[in-house]
Design brief:
This protein is of the alpha/beta class. The protein has 31 helices and 21 strands. A hairpin with a 2-residue loop joins strand 1 and strand 2.
Length: 831
């Protein structure tokens, strides 16, 4: 049995042996634990099948079967199974993708075993393992810092606080936090279910039902219709109780009322999202959050860091410019500095590619961070070419406060910056104790002497210019927020196609502004340089406060705060584990070239869903009003119900159901006016609903009144449905004709159809309406189909008259829209 108390005696340098690892894993000290990354298949089926509305439909279908109305029962069951099958298939696909995401994005751990570094899956870690934490790495198990390394941790995912926490020997580190700067070793102490990694992974990767803004509004609309349906069910039950309706009719009417709840809307939305998800996978875009598609459709400001997005995240040394020493000695010092630091980054790697140097014994080190914009080390060596003292490498603007620079040097720095190079200043203080060793608040020495200027070249992504152009075409404003010099960022942004006249501002200038000035600067400037991670987050928060929907692209640890603040977080696959962990979308090909197409796809999906919603709402409102209206004015025959279940089904399928399959597929991208569904309802739906209801009611009452011919007609309750067959058939016809005429109004093929919506020029929707009209004609002329839907065949003269009524309604509705009669009545502009 392994003694947990003796584990701390493990050699820090050598780590565990393979035999020790095997023994500890056998003793239950391993990190292997099964994580539920998503819902089970049974949960998916249960949560989609056993819903309130499905229970209502199922109950109605069982009653219909007991009454031998198998055709009605079949239609009801089709409604249930259609939505369930599509939803279940979509969510099973989402589950499988979610499981793959959990596997692909599970961070690897670097462990020391038998004096060698190994990259292993976190499940292979055992208690006592010595792990390495470098900048950008995620801490995968709870442990404690050992050895001489020093790191700064971002624990915001655990605490919600954005402050960097310095860690050194003896201090704890927690799974779920990220190393921002420095390098250190830590010993695994809590693994498996004991560690925060288990709890964090369960909560972060398990399925979460997150509703998008559009879904939230749609759910509200559906709940309102559900309440309306419950009210109508109560009225129908009262009519049955007092003998006005037979039990069979009551069940029929209850099924019609159940159809008022637009469950088919879920089907249309699910299909639209599924189609979008498939297209995005083809674009190498991995969706990690369910609301990412909806978020894409709302984005109007895109913030991105320069490094890793505009540039390829690869830098190379361009040149060094010595100050007060020769180039050979400066190169030697830079080589030793790069070899000695424990905080490796791309700048250090670029130096090591050019300059070789031996590792020197450190007295103290301050690792680089995005907040400070500098790093520093103190050496005690007395060698001639490597004098003792403190060496600082950082942004010239920062070091200039304590470093005297000549006009020539300052001008040279400015020229390099304007040319788009990343410029750093290398400086020295002969006193090796001059560096403040307070890790909580490290400070520069009070005086530094310049040794040289170092310039680096970023590799601009080849697709950057075309991509920026794509964002502009999608109606998305681009903001570049970077920790680099604003002039450097501006020069690269200009090369990428943002324009040479973009407004530039630095983080220091932002820090001096009051709240009103900050808001103005955020809105008017395009390039933000030398900003800290907290300033990035503040800028994004400001954009959101001004009513914008903000997406942020990042790849480094310094982007985590701003990614979490954004409405939509996008990370590069090759970026840090921290950014991939908090991202909604991961770009699998490490390029944002596919994003303009993805933004357009999101806009297309959202626009299509809103169009679908309009047709559904017109049908639901119209049927609801008809039920109320006929209840009020049909009392001379004991009350009438305008439609049977099969009538409602054929109206829904032809005038709404089938068109909504085409609308999301053919919808076009574009940012819609930012108005709520209520505004869209008042603008398009309400005039169409009120006029259609009046016309449909007029046709229904006309055919209802014909048999009377001025004489009193007494009808048995059992004969009501037979008596109402012709009026109901006429009502179905006018509703289908007017419903199909709404399709070209929704997407006007010519300017003659422009009224409620803007000119589209797309004839496909009109052709679909014509085809569906043909389908209805087939139903009427084929006796089995006509009998199945319980329709009566009217005379040619009747159909011509009803068609003329539909055309008159069409012209009237267009006039109401064009004259803005509703706008004038309400006293608002809804267009």
């Amino acid at each position: 049995m392994i003694d947990r108390h003796n584990i701390n005696n493990t050699s820090i340098i050598n780590g565990l042996t393979e035999d020790e690892v095997t023994a500890r894993r056998a003793s239950g000290l391993g990190n292997h634990v099964k994580l539920d990354t998503s819902r089970s298949y049974s949960q998916i089926l249960k949560e989609n099948l056993f819903t309130f509305i499905n229970t209502v439909f199922l109950s109605i279908s069982l009653v219909l079967i007991s009454l031998s109305r198998y055709g009605d029962a079949f239609l009801v069951i089709v409604v249930i199974l259609g939505g369930v099958i599509v939803s279940v298939c979509q969510e099973i696909w989402a589950k499988q993708k979610l499981d793959q995401i959990a596997l692909l994005t599970r961070p690897l751990a670097t462990v020391i075993r038998e004096s060698k570094q190994q990259n292993i899956d976190p499940s292979e870690i055992v208690v006592g393992d010595i792990l390495v934490a470098n900048a950008g790495d995620q801490i995968v198990v709870d442990g404690q810092i050992v050895g001489e390394g020093q790191i700064e941790m971002d624990e915001s995912l655990l605490t919600g606080e954005s402050d960097l926490i310095p860690k050194q020997a003896g201090q704890p580190v927690y799974s779920g936090s990220f190393c921002v700067s420095g390098t250190a070793y830590y010993e695994a102490q809590k693994v498996g279910t004991e560690s925060l990694a288990y709890q964090l992974t369960v909560s972060a990767r398990a399925f979460r039902q997150i509703y998008t803004p559009l879904q939230q509004e749609i759910n509200l609309v559906i709940r309102v219709f559900l309440l309306l349906s419950c009210f109508l069910w109560i009225l129908v039950t009262i009519n049955w109780y007092f003998g006005f309706y037979t039990f069979a009719d009551t069940v029929q009417y209850a099924a019609v009322i159940a159809g008022l709840v637009p469950s088919g809307l879920y089907l249309a939305i699910t299909l639209a999202y599924a189609l979008g998800a498939v297209k995005m996978v083809g674009q190498e875009v991995l969706i990690q959050q369910a609301n990412a598609v909806e978020s894409l459709s709302n984005v109007d400001i895109l913030c991105l860091d320069k490094t890793g997005t505009l540039t390829a995240n690869r830098i190379s040394l361009q040149a060094i410019y010595p100050i007060g020493l020769d180039e050979i000695n400066l190169g030697s010092l830079l080589g030793e500095y790069a070899a000695s630091t424990t905080s490796k980054n791309q700048t250090i790697e670029a130096l090591q590619e050019v300059f070789s140097g031996s590792q020197r014994s450190l007295i103290f080190e301050i690792p680089f961070s995005s907040d400070r914009k500098w790093s520093g080390m103190s050496f005690a060596s007395q060698e001639e070419n490597s004098p003792s003292g403190t060496y600082i490498l950082g942004a010239p603007e920062i070091l200039a406060e304590v470093t005297p620079l000549s006009t020539k040097v300052t001008q040279q720095i400015q020229e390099l910056t304007m040319a788009g190079f990343r410029v750093l200043l290398f400086a020295h203080n002969p006193n090796f104790n001059s560096l403040n060793q307070d890790l909580e608040k490290p400070q520069l020495p009070t005086e530094l002497f310049p040794l040289g200027i170092i310039s680096f070249q970023d590799e601009l992504r080849p697709e950057a210019r075309e991509t920026i152009k794509g964002f502009s075409e999608a109606g998305i404003e681009v903001k570049v927020i970077s920790g680099d010099n604003p002039q450097t960022v501006g020069a690269l942004a200009s090369q990428a196609g943002l324009g040479s006249d973009t407004q530039v501002i630095s983080g220091w200038e932002l820090a001096k502004l009051d709240e009103a000035q900050f808001i103005q600067a955020a809105a008017s400037k395009t390039i933000f340089g030398r900003v800290t991670p907290s300033q990035k987050a503040k800028l994004i928060r400001n954009f959101k406060d001004q009513g914008h929907y903000v997406a942020m692209i990042g790849d480094g640890v310094n982007d985590v705060l701003s990614l979490k603040e954004a409405n939509l977080a996008i990370a590069m696959e090759g970026g840090s584990k921290a950014t991939r962990s908090v991202a909604d979308i991961v770009l699998l090909n490490n390029s944002f070239a596919s994003l303009p197409h993805t933004f357009l796809e999101g806009q297309r999906i959202r626009n299509g869903i809103q169009d679908v919603l309009k047709l559904f709402m017109i049908r639901v409102f119209c049927v609801s009003l008809l039920i109320f209206a006929t209840g009020f004015i049909g009392g001379f025959i004991g009350g009438t119900f305008p439609l049977l279940n099969k009538h409602s089904a054929v109206v829904t399928l032809i005038s709404v159901g089938f068109p909504t399959f085409c609308i999301p597929i053919w919808a076009k991208p574009g940012i819609l006016p930012r108005r709520s569904i209520v505004r869209s309802l008042l603008h398009f739906t309400l005039p169409a609903t009120l006029t259609l209801t009046l016309v449909a009611l007029g046709v229904y009452l006309t055919y209802l009144a014909i048999p009377f011919s001025g004489n009193e007609l007494v009808i048995d309750l059992d004969q009501v449905n037979e008596f109402l067959s012709v009026p109901r058939s006429a009502l179905v016809t006018i509703m289908i004709l007017c419903g199909l005429l709404l399709v070209p109004f929704l997407k006007p093929p010519t300017k003659a159809w422009v009224g409620g919506e803007v000119y589209s020029g797309d004839w496909r929707y009109t052709f679909v309406a014509l085809v569906l009209l043909g389908v209805y004609i087939v139903i009427l002329v084929v006796p089995p189909l006509r009998q199945f839907f319980e329709l009566s065949l009217l005379s040619i003269r009747d159909y011509v008259a009803i068609s003329w009524v539909a055309l008159v309604w069409c012209l009237l509705l267009r006039y109401v829209w064009r004259a803005k009669l509703l706008d004038k009545f309400l006293g608002v502009d809804l267009s």
